[in-house]
Amino acid sequence: DPGIPILGVNMGSRGFLTEVYPDDVEAALENMLMGDYGVEECIKVASKSLDTDDTYPDALNEILISSSMPSKMLDMRLSIDGVHIMDIQADGAMVATPTGSTAYNLSAGGPIVKPGVEAMILTTICPYSYFRSVVVPTDSRITVELIKPRAEGIVIADGREYAPIKPLSSVEIWKSEHTTRFVRFKPFYERLERRLIFRKVR
After folding, report:
1. At 185, is the pLDDT very low, low, confident or very high (cuts 50, 70, 90)?
2. Backbone angles phi and psi of 99, in degrees to 5
3. Which domain holds residue 73?
4. Does the residue 138 lie in any domain?
């Protein structure tokens, strides 16, 4: 049942989406049985090819449009709600959710957005020209078009490669109707301090 909240157990290093470590699972389950927990509902993003109408799997973190050749950049036209934003040359472009804002998006210089905020983030990967991320409401439609005749891309959803994108083709990305729910014991900003970026000055 997709409506059942997930308790994430950290088996690695960062584990930002997880809530407890293996040694804490028993205590966490006891707290859940007593109702002492919160639920964080996280949006996903959906995408499709505007040329073939093929759809791709929803992503909890981000949809990435990347070059099919790691050594090549992509020439892309970025549009939001049918309005041309800019043409840009970069290694790729992603649309991240608030949940994914602390993942690849953050590494690429994008902003952190708290889960629960109805927003998506458009971020480019290593752009040749200056480009700041754009935060848009979730009723927006973002289009990434490949504008060079010999440049092929790929669609990657949450780190998994799904489909090639032919030159001069477009991919549209929007908020999915599906969500994922996580069990939470700690506030979002406390998780930032504990696991990610905010470090105490000693």
Report:
1. confident
2. -60, -45
3. 44-177
4. yes
pLDDT tens profile 86-130: 999 999 999 999 999 999 999 999 999 999 999 999 999 999 888
**End-to-end C-alpha distance for the chain, whole angstroms:** 46
* Exposed/middle/buried for residue 143 (C-beta within 10 Å: 0-12, 13-18, 19+): buried
Residue 70 lies in a domain: yes
- Contact status, residue 144 vs residue 135, Cβ threshold 8 Å: no
Q: Which of 66, 53, 25 is nearest to 157 (CA)?
A: 66
Q: What percent of the chain has pLDDT over 90?
A: 59
Could you give the CA distance from residue 44 to residue 133 in angstroms, rounded to a whole number?
18
- Distance, CA of 159 to CA of 148 (rounded, Å): 25
**In the chain, pLDDT over 70 holds for what percent of residues?**
93
DSSP strand pairing (142-146 vs 74-80): antiparallel
Q: Is residue 29 part of a domain?
A: no
Computed on alpha carbons and rounded to an integer, the radius of gyration of the chain in Å comes to 18
Structure tokens at 153: 């891309």
Please report whether residue 30 resides in a domain: no
When divided into structural domains, the chain yields a total of 1
Give the predicted TM-score (pTM) of the model.
Answer: 0.88
Residue 115 tokens read as: 């889960």
Q: Phi-psi region for residue 35, left (φ > 0), alpha (ψ -120 to 50) or beta?
A: left
